[in-house]
Specification:
This protein is of the alpha+beta class. It has helices at 3-9, 15-23, 30-37, 41-53, 75-89, 96-99, 104-110, 117-123, 129-141, 164-176; strands at 57-65, 68-73, 115-116, 145-150, 157-162. The strands form two sheets. A three-stranded antiparallel β-sheet has the order 3-5-4. The radius of gyration is 17 Å and the shape is elongated.
């Protein structure tokens, strides 16, 4: 999966939890998925539509009622669901709210190797300086990212590295996502 697809997939809060639960064997109907993810109806419905727009999820023809459809993963959706499952199965339930923030996973993926702010920014399409700064600060507050100052460079520059749970998530996602070389 390339970084653009990954960023698009993570723009809705409940997209990855839905994919993870489908990979885990939760029935593809709305009620079991809604109960398993704990999402609100509106945001859950928007995430389902988003996944269908990305061709990761489709209605299962011949199954379900028109008002209560059943969903299944497409072939690209199976790979995305496996990645989502690996990420969600390795994190604590208390930390999963952080994973639902739109830039958390792309930033951690970009931190697969230690990087400076400008290098991380260059690797992530469409992220603003403010969004990256806020994401790094939030991840640093949760001890998922460690900020250090590179003493050898002049002027001094901060360097970011994924640690603890962030490092685990970074290793999982970083191995599956390809970056374009600028």
């Amino acid at each position: 999966m390339d970084i653009n697809s990954f960023v698009n997939m993570t723009t809705r809060a409940w997209s990855l939890p839905i994919l993870s639960k489908l990979h885990d064997g939760v029935a593809g109907r709305q009620a079991p998925l809604l109960a398993a993810t704990g999402a609100g109806r509106t945001s859950f419905g928007q995430s389902l539509e988003h996944l269908m727009d990305l061709n990761l999820l489709e209605r299962n023809p011949g199954h379900g009622h028109p008002l209560r459809p059943e969903f299944r993963l497409t072939d690209p959706g199976k790979a995305a669901a496996e990645l989502a499952y690996r990420v969600y199965s390795r994190t604590e339930a208390a930390d999963q709210d952080l994973l639902r923030k739109s830039w958390t996973l792309p930033v951690l993926t970009a931190l697969h190797s230690t990087g400076q702010f400008s290098v991380i920014r260059r690797g992530l399409p469409r992220i603003t300086d403010r969004a990256l700064s806020q994401s790094l600060k939030l991840l640093e507050d949760r001890s998922w990212v460690r900020r250090a100052v590179d003493e050898k460079s002049r002027p001094l520059r901060p360097v970011y590295r994924a640690v603890n749970t962030g490092g685990l998530v970074s290793d999982i996602a970083g191995a599956s996502v390809r970056f374009q070389i600028p």
